[in-house]
Design goal:
198 residues; GMP Synthetase, Chain A, domain 3; 2 domains; three-stranded mixed sheet; two-stranded antiparallel ribbon; 5 strands; 47% helix
Length: 198
């Protein structure tokens, strides 16, 4: 699917924030597929050209907006924190922030700072995150939900991240986690049973 096809359809509900780039791309692709199925290749080619012209038009408009807002004293930073605006700027190679900054924005947008960046591999697009252990109750469902929120935000702010790996082990030099529970009936003596785990 072309870059034009990925982003050109308007939101179904008429609201600018009602659709993301992926949903818009699917809609455009569906329309183009319906035109191709009708058997008239010239109609499909015309539709693809129309999409390209519109992409060029609003891409030029976005470039001008960025140029005007990047003047001293402007408020470009606020726009860069918006998922839709950020996605459009990335699609047109107009986003002024580097990958590391946009990854940080995505973590902030996910609303859960229970992760820190352990590394990013440009070649594979793999982002390694380290769990800080502060996400909810620590159960698998909570962790999976937090990771999904991060991945969704990364799709908007840093689409070059194609895979996310989470490190959950305790780093060297950190204190061992103490597990506290009641002693079994077979054990003797007062107090909780304590075991160090890594």
């Amino acid at each position: 699917m072309s870059a034009a096809a990925r982003t050109a359809a308007p939101p179904a509900d008429g609201a600018a924030g009602g659709m993301n780039a992926e949903q818009a791309g699917r809609r455009v692709e569906e329309v183009l597929d319906r035109l191709a199925a009708a058997g008239d290749e010239s109609v499909r080619a015309g539709a693809e050209e129309l999409v390209r012209v519109l992409m060029d038009f609003y891409g030029a408009g976005l470039a001008r907006i960025v140029r005007l807002l990047d003047a001293p004293g402007s408020r470009l930073t606020g726009l860069l924190g918006d998922e839709l605006v950020s996605s459009l700027l990335l699609l047109h190679d107009l986003h002024p922030e580097d990958t590391a900054t946009r990854i940080t924005r995505a973590l902030d947008a996910a609303g859960d700072r229970a992760w820190e960046v352990a590394g990013f591999d440009d070649a594979s697009g793999t982002l390694r995150l380290r769990s800080l252990g502060g996400a909810g109750c620590g159960c698998a469902a909570t962790t999976a939900g937090a990771q999904q929120a991060v991945e969704d935000a990364l799709a908007c702010f840093a689409p070059e991240v194609r895979a996310v790996e989470v490190e959950t082990g305790v780093a060297a030099g950190e204190p061992a986690l103490l597990q506290i529970g009641t002693r079994s009936a077979a054990r003797t003596g007062p107090g909780p049973a304590v075991a160090k785990t890594r």
